[in-house]
Amino acid sequence: MHSMLEILILAAGKGTRMRSSLPKVLHKLAGKPLLGHVVDAAHALGAAQICVVYGFGGEAVPQALTDDNLTFVLQAEQHGTGHAVKQALPQLSDDGVTLVLYGDVPLTHTSTLEPLVAAARAGKLGLLTVKLAHPDDYGRIVRDADGRVRRIVEHKDATPAELAIHEVNTGILAVATRFLRQWIDALKNNNAQGEYYLTDIIAMAVHDGIDVTTYQPASDWEVMGVNSKAQLAELERIHQGETAQALLDAGVTLMDPARLDVRGMLTCGRDVVIDINCIFEGHVELGDNVQVGANCILRNAKVASGTRIDAFTVIDDAEIGEANRLGPFSRIRPGTSLARDVHVGNFVEIKNSQIDDGSKINHLSYLGDATVGKRVNIGAGTITCNYDGANKHRTIIEDDVFIGSDTQLVAPITVRQGATLGAGTTLTRDAPAGELTLSRTKQLTVDSWKRPLKQKKEN
Ligand code: UD1
Ligand code: MG
Q1: Which of 81, 131, 137 has most ligand 1 atoms within 8 Å of its beta carbon, as the pocket-test mutant?
Q2: Residue among 43, 79, 155, 363 flagged as catalytic
Q3: Which residues are within 8 A (CB) of 445 and not within 5 positions of it... i.e. 6 or more apart?
Q4: Which domains, and CATH codes, for the chain?
Q5: Would you call 229 helix, strand, or coil by DSSP?
Q6: pLDDT value at 42 more than 80
Q7: Are residues 21 and 88 in contact, defined by beta-carbon separation less than 8 angstroms?
Q8: Mean of per-residue pLDDT scores for the chain
């Protein structure tokens, strides 16, 4: 039996360089708080408990992550990473192993963390390190002549010789919880920063004869933290690049993998083509042979196979059926579902409406709270007047209706099967099936009317 894995996420730091009143770990990467990415990784590792140490920003951090199964521990004053871990120790059980992660290091792969956890389960201390050309202010990994780790020295406490070391501490480590508890209790703050350093436990492990085994991530960015908006932007690009690569590997055609943003989950069928500058948010599902034109935004949308979405179309919380044609410049709003072979053209807005097979709304229209049958043709400039200033009302348009251009349908109202509405109609009562209904003032031509002429100016 594996010993239980408990994960500590340190997230109490202020993040001064973000220049923001939002706690650093709540800044978003790919539409999700940095801390959310770390919590996801912790879940993926099968943590029995995930404990978040928070501080700066107060209750904003626990409030932002309510739906996850998390334990929150307040570190009211930040006296160092060792002090942060100490606050959480009462939550941890002695027979497990603890993995320490950081709320501002969002992109670590679980495959990078698994060996550390395995080392901890084998009675060792697993430590994640990287070799950096410019180790700057990271803690340095000090090894003996045989290459065995002896301790970590923080850059502010380091000698010039130690500062020349390129292997640095990522901060991420895993060890049996009962050892961790012993060592954390013994920490002192007699160092350059007057802080309790988590890193001091390495020398204690060595002293106690516990093996310290180091591991390296496949890429340096997996252990990069976010301290500034510039670093956040850099990690965002790296993450988006990874997402694009995964889509390409799955067979999706991206006209330019560098001009795609997925902020959530995008799943694609076979032979999907996505043009440049598209944004996908929340859960988006694209069926086989779906084509998405340039500059489209799709949020929480399901698009069935064979549908083509042309440029500048925005879809929000909607379901699009098979073989539809949308856009350019269509806006599909929440609660809308389009059945099969529906065409929606430029400057058409559809909200909370159901459109059945083969219907077409090709130009400059607004449909709100409408139920539209099969093979309906809605002319340019048609508006459902669904709102009376207080309440919303439904418009029902039955199968095979033809609606002339520039028509207003004053809801609640029904246009019966096969009805035709003349152009310019303001419909205030139901239109009967199979008939032509129109409301229009009679056309008139004025006899012997003369267009006024411009008067000549006197000098
Ligand atoms: C720490 C490590 C250093 C390592 C570096 C990697 C220590 C003593 N040093 O340095 O060896 O190279 O991380 O980035 O551990 N935090 C708290 N409470 C605190 C202090 C920190 O929650 O009291 C959290 C911060 O929010 C942050 C993380 O711990 O996420 C690291 O803190 P930070 O002050 O950035 O660590 P460094 O001093 O840079
Ligand atoms: Mg510090």
Answers
A1: 81
A2: 363
A3: none
A4: 5-223 (3.90.550.10), 229-437 (2.160.10.10)
A5: helix
A6: yes
A7: no
A8: 97
